[in-house]
Amino acid sequence: MFLQRRMAEPYKIKSVELINVLNEQEREAALIEGGYNTFLIRSDQVYIDLLTDSGTSAMSDLQWAALQRGDEAYAGSKSWYRLEHAVQEIYGYRHVIPTHQGRGAENLLSQLKIHPGDYVPGNMYFTTTRAHQELNGGTFVDIIIDEAHDPQAELPFKGNVDLVKLENLIQKVGADKIPYVSVAVTVNLAGGQPVSMQNLRDVYALCQKHSIPVMFDATRCVENAYFIKEREVGYERVPVKDILKEMMSYSDGCTMSGKKDCLVNIGGFLAMNDDDLYTRARELVVLYEGMPSYGGMAGRDMEAMAQGIYEAVDDLYIAHRINQVRYLGDQLINAGVPVVRPIGGHAVFLEARAFLPHLDQEQFPAQALAAALYLDSGVRSMERGIVSSGRNKVTGENNHPKLELVRLTIPRRVYTDNHMDVVADSVISLYEKRDKISGLEMVYEPPTLRFFNARFEPLAANGRLIQD
Ligand SMILES: *Cc1c(COP(=O)(O)O)cnc(C)c1O
After folding, report:
1. Which of 77, 264, 291, 343 is deepest in the core (most CB within 10 A)?
2. What's the CATH architecture for 61-312?
3. Which of the following is catalytic: 47, 93, 126, 431?
4. Is 268 near ligand 1, meaning CB less than 6 Å away?
5. Domain 24-53+316-458, architecture per CATH
6. Does residue 438's CB lie within 6 angstroms of at least one atom of ligand 1?
7. pTM of the complete model beyond 0.90
8. How far apart are CA 323 and CA 329, in angstroms?
9. pLDDT under 50 in the chain at which residues?
10. DSSP labels for 6-34?
11. Closest ligand 1 atom, CA of 268?
12. Per annotation, catalytic residue among 260, 300, 380, 434
């Protein structure tokens, strides 16, 4: 029999943050106080925080040391040159514009490239990305493969662009109405699903034929590179760093949220090869972010991000990162818990309607499940379903999204595999008593972005979320 060698965290712990562990009565009180909404629970009431992987990474000793090296000069900061060099070396683009986070880069790119009446194709939308495109008069067009919308379709590269959809759009509206094609690597809203190297190559070739630039949403590009190493023929032995460089060579630039794959708590950038676009971006960034040599970041934050860019492409780091997420996902799959397949790069998604089939979608199954998980173990997750989808602007009815999910998002380098075991145990034990979990009623609904502040109460006659 082969022994499957196990892998431990490729880091050791030098400084720890103590966790406040509440008992069940305290958790129930916190849940009532927070209106059964995980956004309204205070972080000191949370045991394991899987709300998001954005800005929640743990920095290394070298990153903390780099903070001290931060050069806060208003112009020509040494820290800026280090960051610029890191992006040029690791991602391969010629020009870099720093921004306070990813959406700052999206704002600049959208303003510089999109004209009213334009179409911006992308492999599934992301909230802030699409909002900036629409704000500038563009229309987002989804060109991801159909299977990406099916939570059970087991494909190695479920984030791929459907080339026929892209080609049809070009024929229909004309290349001059498409300022650029936006390709996300990986695709967040599809569950952190990757795009293959072959697909990136094909998209780039098609776009070059029509003189349409390709801009990546590079937010989780290192995670995408690891999936290529794992799943695409010919890349098994290629270092992730080299795979990443090749990926980026099939684009003309990118927007980046440093809060994810750059391993920092804040920061971002816009990168490009085009000289003219760079010149215009250097002028625009002054209005929204700051001088082109800091773009809304402190010198110390640029230092930490430069260091993080190098650390993120370490093969051992990224292998453990992806496998830790999968380690949690596989435990749930093995216990029969309904999750989005295959497990993506940054999160495990529970399918709340299959988990709680006795609840109608109007009884907020994902919200109820997220609340039940917190009540059971103090694990904080996020609803991505009917509450997040809001209401139809015309009819006022609740939107009914196809996917009703609870997202367990894993911060980078923060938790050990033991924490994943605790999460798995809690989800599995809830699944075993799933028929005891009550639906919710929304008792306060804010007019916009209701998921942040909405309040709920259990529908059960005795007012308890989980029946004994
Ligand atoms: C987080 C994120 C962004 C926006 O980045 P911020 O740094 O939060 O502004 C853009 N695209 C994707 C896919 C993201 O996950």
Report:
1. 264
2. 3-Layer(aba) Sandwich (3.40)
3. 126
4. yes
5. Alpha-Beta Complex (3.90)
6. no
7. yes
8. 9
9. none
10. ----SS--SS--------HHHHHHHHHHT
11. 7
12. 260
